[in-house]
Amino acid sequence: MLRLSLSPEIETLREELKTFLIGHPQKNIKTDHTLESFQSRGRAWQAKLSAARFLGLHWPLEFGGRGLNLVAEAIVQEELARAGCPQILGLFGLTMVGPVLIEHGTDLQKTKFLQKILSGEEIWCQGFSEPGAGSDLSAVSTVGAVQANGDILLTGQKVWTSFAHIAQRCFVLCRTEPGSVKHAGLSYVLVDMQAPGITVRPLRQISGDDEFNEVFFDNVRVPANMVVGKRGDGWKIAISTLMYERVVLTFARHIQSESALREIIARKDLLSPAQKERLARLVAHACGVRALAYSHLEGYSSGQRPGAEGSLDKLYWSEHFQQVCELALETDGLAAFKSEATSFSAHNYLYSRGRTIAAGTSEIQRTIIAERVLGLPRFA
């Protein structure tokens, strides 16, 4: 059985955050779930948390963190969710780009980007997925033509790029070595979204939001010093990014999504016996997902590198989130769709349909778990 042992330092952190939240109460605005509201509230809230040093807690002191561990990050996420706080806007930067730059970036890259990631001054988007490649990240066709001075000219297209229309920066996987195939010959580059040659086209989702985008690169110049790691080592850097995404970012999303579960619990008297049984199973599942994530975070805090076990966290959370949103929608019934603006539960339900696709489909996660966690042979 997992027994989470928290150090006095982390318990002190929890009390410090609770005191901060009492002095900075946040309103839970359910009637305004537009993307514009999400962005404005999330950016402002991130700036306040960053100023109080409650973000990037596991980052080293010299980069604006507190030098704590990933369990400290989880504790903060728990308290923010318990207080009904808005989601911060720069999660990609905080949970993916930041840790990758700390581990693999140059001094210039760390100095240039890390503080602005913490404060939310610069929002990042992820340039991995491409049309026709599905979930096969190695099937990258975006070309990074290396120039005589080492600069790279990007040409190609990315898709399903969350927040590309508001982001200042993008981390892009491209093919820089001519004739290379699959995992070889890829490079991980940092792109200024204001650079000439970039076109962003929003994609409207079933929920009505347009947080996803297509991004087109037409000979976009990326300075040589914006390559992370060595040229051609992009696959290694990309996998490191995904490992952080599937554990740290997924934990943050899981804690935040529990708010939908609390809403159902508050209205449990309206449920049928069968629905109450489903609710009980969902609560037990949520506890299990959280315990599993904590076991992984404790391992990382002891020096273990994020690995394939993150696929367990991502798979269990995303499918659980869909089930929670489905039950929440049932409790509202047809009234959820009769108002002029789609209700909170209906919006969450529609939004949740994409969670088993983003960051790798459930099918991809199951394959990773089978091969790299359980050691099963590849299907011939």
Estimate the mean pLDDT confidence.
86
Compressed to H and E, one letter per element, the order equals HHHHHEEEEEEEEHHHHHH
* Low-pLDDT segments, ≥5 res: none
As laid out across the biggest beta sheet, the strand order is 1-4-5-8
Report how far apart the termini are.
Answer: 37 Å
Structural class: alpha+beta
* Major sheet size, sense and barrel closure: 4 strands, mixed
Tell me what portion of residues adopts beta-strand conformation: 5-15%
Give me the count of strands.
8
Apparent shape: globular
User: How big is the Rg?
Assistant: 21 Å
The CATH topology assignment of the largest domain is Butyryl-CoA Dehydrogenase, subunit A, domain 3
| Quaternary structure | single chain
DSSP summary: helix tally = 11
CATH superfamily of the largest domain: Butyryl-CoA Dehydrogenase, subunit A, domain 3
Topology:
Elements: H1 8-23, H2 35-51, H3 70-82, H4 91-104, H5 107-119, E1 124-127, E2 143-146, E3 152-158, E4 169-175, E5 186-192, E6 198-203, E7 212-222, E8 227-228, H6 234-266, H7 273-301, H8 310-332, H9 335-338, H10 344-352, H11 362-373
Parallel strand pairs: 1-4
Antiparallel strand pairs: 2-3, 3-7, 4-5, 5-8, 6-7
Helix pairs in contact: 1-3, 3-6, 4-5, 4-6, 6-7, 6-8, 7-8, 8-10, 8-11
